[in-house]
Design brief:
Blueprint lengths: L9 E2 L5 E5 L9 E5 L5 E5 L2 E2 L4 E8 L8 E7 L4 E5 L8 E8 L5 E2 L1 E7 L8 E11 L41
Antiparallel strand pairs: 1-4, 2-3, 3-12, 4-11, 5-10, 6-9, 6-12, 7-8, 7-11
């Protein structure tokens, strides 16, 4: 999730490094700063997942100085590889990546943030925050858990009992 207290469970490839940072944050007070050295895998979280629909999501911040290829969110279960790539032209803002997938069997399904394309100059970095892995086909808004498990109650939209809408409320119905 967030990186408020630690980076437990996160690794990186080669001699890249990861560390908590408060320089750029999307949620809370810390994010994961990944400094590139020599490997396409910027950050990796090993998760055991079942063969039902899942969605992984994360927020990435790519500084202007990052001169590598794209930054991609990827699920790797050793037989199926899928990914979504961040907008490489967008710099210095947080971008959300989400990836829906259904693995074929119970597997160790790493969730990875990788560099795609040209390798950046050693010492360049990106930030990652708000990582979630959920069952279901759609990414939901981020819930700060600091690595714990959480559940969300079903939501609903309801018109006020008076039937009167004011300037801060709105309602619309669409039928297809």
């Amino acid at each position: 999730g967030g990186f408020e207290t630690n980076t437990t469970g996160w690794t990186t490839g080669g001699t890249n490094t990861i560390a908590r940072s408060s320089t750029q944050i999307k949620f809370g007070g810390q994010s994961l700063k990944v400094t590139y050295a020599d490997n396409a895998v910027l950050a990796d979280y090993a998760a055991t997942i079942t063969n039902v629909a899942h969605v992984a999501s994360c927020w990435v911040y790519i500084p202007t100085a990052y001169d590598g290829g794209g930054v991609s969110l990827k699920q790797l279960n050793y037989t199926v590889t899928t990914s979504e790539v961040a907008a490489t032209a967008v710099r210095d803002v947080w971008q959300r990546l989400s990836l829906a997938f259904t693995p074929g069997a119970d597997v160790a399904g790493d969730i990875q943030i990788i560099n795609t394309g040209a390798a950046p100059t050693a010492g360049r970095f990106i930030y990652i925050d708000g990582v979630q892995l959920e069952t279901g086909p759609f990414a939901t808004p981020y819930i700060e858990t600091d690595g714990g498990t959480t559940a969300r109650a079903a939501g609903r939209v309801r018109i006020p009992s008076t039937g009167i809408l004011d300037g801060t409320q709105g309602w619309a119905a669409v039928r297809f």
